[in-house]
Design brief:
Elements lengths: L1 H12 L7 H28 L1 H10 L4 H20 L4 H24 L4 H24 L4
Helix pairs in contact: 2-3, 2-4, 2-6, 4-5, 5-6
Length: 143
Amino acid sequence: MQTTLHTLQLLSAFPFLETNPNNIQNIQIVVIVLQFIIALSILNVWVFQYETIVVQFKEFNLPVWLRNAVGWTKAVFCIVLLAGIWVWQLAVVGALAIGMLMVFAILTHLRAKDPFYKIFPAIVLFALCLAVAFLCYQYKFKG
């Protein structure tokens, strides 16, 4: 009962999260767009800007095997995140896993004392992942 009360208080704080059918459909569209934004952002960095990743991992003194493991892990969870368009549980798992990877990215940038503009993309992706996980869990969207 306590959890339901907190959820209702949260929903009342954000009128666009009300459970009216039109709002739910709009929220589902926003969530799908966010899933694509997250996946395409990771694809952009790990495919089209791969040389930047190679340089960063060298600067951070991280091993090649870790870079490859992180890349494959992100690729797998991007697929899981996109599969979540049809199965909400997969969206939650994919978003939380990518969010956790973003936490490690943020911590790595902080450890390296990188300027904020290098940390900001990871913070934004982390926030988007939390939003997707919360909304998919809250509304249990089905494709």
